[in-house]
Write a structure and sequence with these properties.
The protein has four helices and 18 strands. By secondary structure, it is α+β, with helices and mostly antiparallel strands. It folds into two domains: 92 residues, 2-Layer Sandwich (hypothetical protein PF0899 fold), CATH 3.30.2320.60; 88 residues, Tumour Suppressor Smad4. Helix 2 packs across helix 4.
Length: 248
């Protein structure tokens, strides 16, 4: 019997994602890349010595136009995507050999909004090159915990959400950590990440924007008491004394 979640996912791809891409002029969002990376991790995982190992090298092929769009913050994007894969692997019980490396490759001939991901499990050699992994070797622990002691939370009119993971996504889609219902909220609207002891909110190129205390932001360190709004849905960021952060 077919997996109902797989069927649902394909239906979303066919009837929602591509038409929406055309509606927004083929604009590619970081969340779209993350979704393809997630599938590549699942498709290319391997079993060695009783462990389920995930790929650690991902080449993301994009159109030259989309690659140029991400160029100004490519390093940050690659780091965030790597962090996302670390968190995803821990949730799915997949062991990683070091931190995943993400490469964004401009590819002539690809259309705007198109993504191709090639994922491999590779071993870094002493000469600085990578070779396809063929023998099991000791897995190393990543530096991102699966869960953390919640020292911050979001207060909404109808609920309180503990920020008990180092990386949490927010949006209308059911695959987010924090699901927000609202037609003006993007499917993958924003993310909150624990970085350097501070909670940082990043807008994921949403259609209607993310605001902190009324100001539209791309990325912002949150402080205790800040009002965070995703489109028309607003909430208050609360933090204990050791997690207040500061503006940057």
């Amino acid at each position: 019997m077919a997996n109902p979640f797989a069927i649902l996912e394909k239906q979303f791809e066919r009837f929602i994602e591509r038409p929406l891409m055309r509606l927004f002029g083929g604009r590619l969002e970081p969340a779209d890349i993350a979704k393809h990376l997630s599938r590549a991790m699942e498709d290319e995982r391997q079993v060695f010595s009783g462990k389920l190992l995930g790929p650690n090298l991902y080449e993301v092929k994009l159109s030259t136009e989309d690659a140029e769009t991400f160029k100004s913050y490519e390093a940050t994007l690659r780091q965030d995507l790597s962090d996302y894969l670390v968190d995803l692997a821990q949730r799915r019980g997949i062991t990683l050999i070091g931190r995943p490396e993400i490469r964004l490759t401009p590819t002539p001939g690809m259309g705007r909004g198109d993504i191709q991901v090639q994922a491999q499990l590779v071993d870094a050699s002493s000469d600085g090159h990578t070779r396809q992994f063929t023998q099991p070797f000791k897995a190393v622990d990543t530096d991102m915990p699966k869960e953390i002691t919640a020292s911050a939370w979001l207060e909404l009119p109808d609920r309180t959400i503990a920020l008990n993971q180092p990386f949490m996504t927010m949006g209308r889609s059911i695959d987010n950590d924090i699901i927000l219902e609202g037609d003006d909220v993007s499917r993958n609207h924003a993310q909150i990440k624990l970085k350097g002891g501070h909670y940082v909110v990043t807008d994921l190129n949403s259609a209607n924007g993310t605001r902190v205390n009324g100001q539209k932001i791309t990325e912002c360190v949150l402080q205790n008491g800040d009002e965070l709004c995703l489109a028309a849905i607003c909430m208050t960021f609360k933090a204990s004394n050791d997690s207040r952060g500061g503006r940057r």
